[in-house]
Write a structure and sequence with these properties.
The protein has six helices and seven strands; from the N terminus they run E-E-H-E-H-E-H-E-H-E-E-H-H. The protein has about 140 residues and is α/β, with parallel strands linked by helices. Strand 6 and strand 7 form a beta hairpin.
């Protein structure tokens, strides 16, 4: 929550949600760095959406937050509506998006950075974990 304290997140309907409220019962945060124009992203997003829905169905204390590299807010929202699960996003074009990319050393997309609520990094390669282990990787992350 370190960088998200006091921040607004947005949903698919462009409605603002306070990060503290959205994350109050979550232990693990997955920052999903992606864009609709990126073919590997468009291949991974449905996999991540299924992963998220599977964990949500069993009450896992996990939240995904989309950090867009789309070229416009409209492209970001369209991508969220078409392909994403019901996770939230960093508002398009904010300094926070750039700060998160810099903090976690994101140089390519798609990238799934998994952290504890206090900001402790669990893995910068959550994408591989999701591909290899599916929903069972959540337990590994929770015990990290």
């Amino acid at each position: 929550m370190d960088m998200l304290s006091g921040q607004q997140l947005v949903n698919k309907q462009k409605q603002g949600v306070h990060a503290e409220v959205a994350l109050q019962n979550k232990d693990i945060i997955c920052y999903y760095f992606s864009a609709h124009w990126c073919p590997p992203c468009r291949m991974f997003t449905p996999i991540l959406a299924d992963f998220y829905r599977d964990l949500e169905a069993v009450g896992a204390r996990l939240e995904c937050i989309f950090v867009s590299s789309d070229r416009s807010e409209n492209e970001m929202i369209q991508y969220m509506v078409e392909s994403h699960a019901d996770w939230l996003a960093i508002p398009w074009g904010t300094q926070l998006a750039g700060a998160l990319k810099s903090k976690y050393g994101v140089s390519g997309i798609p990238c799934l950075v998994v952290v504890k609520k206090d900001g402790t990094i669990i893995t910068k390669d959550g994408r591989s974990d999701v591909h290899r282990f599916g929903a069972s990787c959540f337990q590994q992350w929770a015990n990290a």
